Amino acid sequence: MAYQQGLNQQQKQVQKLAMTQQLQQSIQILQYNAEGLQQFLQQKSLENPLLMVHHSTPDQANFSGSQRRVDNFMNAIPDTQQSLFEYLLEQVHLTMRDTPLRDLVLFLLEQVDLNGYLRISDDEIKAQTGAQSLQILDAVTLLQQLDPPGVGARNLQESLLLQTENDNHAPNLAYIVLEEDFTNFVERKWAFIAAKYQVTVAEIQHIFDYVQTLTPRPGAAFSQTQNTFVRPELVVQVQADQLQLSLTREGRPQIVFQQRYFTRMVQTNDREVTAYMKEKKQEFDWLQKSVGQRSQTILRVGQEIIQRQHDFFFDAKRPLKPLLLRDVATKLNLHESTVSRTVNGKYLQTDFGIFELKHFFTNAIGNQKDDSAASVKRQIQELIDQEDKNKPLSDQRLVNLLSAAGVTISRRTVAKYRESLGIGGSSKRKRFD
């Protein structure tokens, strides 16, 4: 049988959406808390003459009397911005089961600097933890899958690769160019790269423009300290045995289109003015759609939370069931990072207080699906509150009491939960009066 090898050319057309500034802002809009969104819209109203924002005050919100009383003073509570470490730690506890691999990821978190880079080598990890190479690889991979994209990288190139890999709208060849020709790409040897991959220099320029939208310091946004205020975007009302959830005015800001001004300006004979007005009209339409999608996403996630944490609103002890970000993400067909952005900095108002949405996510203790970390912490708090201060309960004694109540937990975990509650050891709690 004769063997023949032939070469031919095929033209293939692939439709792929590049990450535009508007798409990036849509993601950012979801991540804003109420205060941040208000500031963002205010800035947009200054840039766009067709856009006007109706601001609401707490007293204007459509609450019942009891809700309004809570909101009047609760909105003034300062809320300190999370650090990068706290944000990453929260994601680990809400997405990963309690395993040795998670412990290794927690160790790696402590080695991430303020810019989001992992500043420890594999050899140093082995020396300090005794972990094997495959375990280290798995732990680093899990770390690098956390939000924000690019975190956990060892250098700039790896950070850009992680951000590109996480972006479904990245240009074609962007990842492989960054991986295989990073130096040539940075040195603008684009003709060489274009010839290598048989594309035009314009396509390499497009990749460069895209990379310019990425961040060289994925953790830098968390290093800024500022004071914000708690502004609930969701309110839940208990009616008989039913829960009714709705958006507050903070959760659905009103964006008004200046129709009269637009009509008058587009009727002029100046083409530049007409083109400018149409551009600003498109910007308004996009902004209105993005803000609307943000509100609906928060409402959907909130509804799923109150369904799963039904007992929290009816039981005076406020018990929480184990709930992970992935549970809600799977049910609502959303990405985990979308749920993470949705619950971070968003608040739910009840008749008995205001709670951040992420408060309702908690991991299970070991294999006990009915015991959440928050529930066990509450039991530890109650046991310590009721102890004899002349003879405080040791951690082992707490383990025994919890075990008698049907909760199997290690002494190490009890100590960790006790410390997270800000409670000292038994020797520090002892009183002599």
UniProtKB/TrEMBL annotation:
UniProt keyword rRNA-binding, yes or no: no
InterPro entries in the cross-refs: RNA_pol_sigma_54 (IPR000394), RNA_pol_sigma_54_core-bd (IPR007046), RNA_pol_sigma_54_DNA-bd (IPR007634), RpoN_core-bd_sf (IPR038709)
A Pfam match: Sigma54_DBD
Top-level taxon of the source organism: Bacteria
Domain RNA polymerase sigma factor 54 DNA-binding: 275-431
Keywords of this entry: DNA-binding, DNA-directed RNA polymerase, Nucleotidyltransferase, Sigma factor, Transcription, Transcription regulation, Transferase
PROSITE patterns in alphabetical order: SIGMA54_1, SIGMA54_2, SIGMA54_3
Boundaries of every RNA polymerase sigma factor 54 core-binding domain copy: 76-261
Record-stated family: Belongs to the sigma-54 factor family.
The protein's name: RNA polymerase factor sigma-54
